[in-house]
Amino acid sequence: MSTTAIRTVPVDGIGPVEVTIAEYGSGQPFLLLHGGAGPASVAGFAELFAATHDVRVLVPTHPGFGGTPRPEALNSIPGLAALYNTLLDRLDLADVTVIGNSIGGWITAEIALLRSPRVSGIVLIDAVGIGVPGHPVADFFALTLDQVFARSFHNPEKFRVDPATLPPAAQAVAASNRTAIFAYTGASMTDPALAGRLATLEIPTLVLWGDSDQIVDADYGRAYAAAIPLARFQLLGATGHSPQLETPDLVLHAIWDSADTDFSAFSR
User: Fold this and answer.
1) Is pTM, for the whole model, over 0.85?
2) In the chain, helix, strand, coil percent, each to 5?
3) CATH code: domain of residue 29
4) Domain count along the chain
5) Exposed site from 37, 110, 204, 253, fewest CB < 10 Å?
6) In terms of C-beta density within 10 A (0-12 exposed, 13-18 middle, 19 or more buried), how is residue 230 classed?
């Protein structure tokens, strides 16, 4: 079960921003950030996580996704990071682990760089954001939806959708999601300076990567982990760009098993 609320969060240089937040469970707080596929791509994982562990999972919808409003001035990944950093303050949360998939992983990395004392660890799941020579992020905007599915999943047939069969409202949401992705990331989905900035981080980091990801390949993931001093990289078998959707049990085990290592941020 989940509850949903809309909170107004003030962000410097942007103004008040309305954020829709779904909340699952109670206990240790986790902030779970979705990628370009929208909040539905993490909702099932959040529900499973809360059902199997004593955790409180907060899942915000990035403004502009799912038909939600987006202030024109909110147009960057660092802007989203500032929004969620302020949200944690407003909610007065402590010892928060932030988990992000794809562009949500990029937002997670930017949140870590803000060095909030409220954030104790991060998990990056097939994140985009850095530049890796020889391993570019797939050009999402040049791909058909069918090509996106083929590149995103180990077994795409389980997730493939024909957009022509969607009702008009769902087609409108999909179009707005695409517009929001471009507004936040631009065409390249990378920040050439990000990897260098990550080298200054001192936060426990778990980098999870699907071995079948053809949006950002496993070597890209290894480079992401190498850019963060306290990061540990783990490859997940038979899964693609959205492991929390395709193989959620693997993701849960990877996060919780890390409690037995030096990732004390996940020890609950």
Assistant:
1) yes
2) 40, 25, 35
3) 3.40.50.1820
4) 1
5) 253
6) middle
List, in sequence order, every beta strand (DSSP E) within 90-210: 96-101, 119-125, 205-210
Instruction: Specify the amino acid at residue 66.
Output: G
- The type of residue at 77 is I
Angstrom distance (rounded) from CA 128 to CA 170: 26
pLDDT digits (tens, 9 = 90+) for 211-245: 999 999 999 999 999 999 999 999 999 999 999 99
Residues 28/56, Cβ–Cβ less than 8 Å? yes
Whether residue 265 is predicted with pLDDT greater than 60 in this model: the reply is no
Residue of 40, 112, 123, 43 lying closest to 81 (CA atoms): 112
| Rounded Cα gap, residues 209 and 1, in angstroms | 28
Residue written as tokens 């596929």?
37
At 261, is the pLDDT very low, low, confident or very high (cuts 50, 70, 90)? low
Domain range for 168: 2-263
Tokens 């992401």 correspond to what residue? 224
Asked whether residue 68 is assigned to any structural domain, the reply reads yes
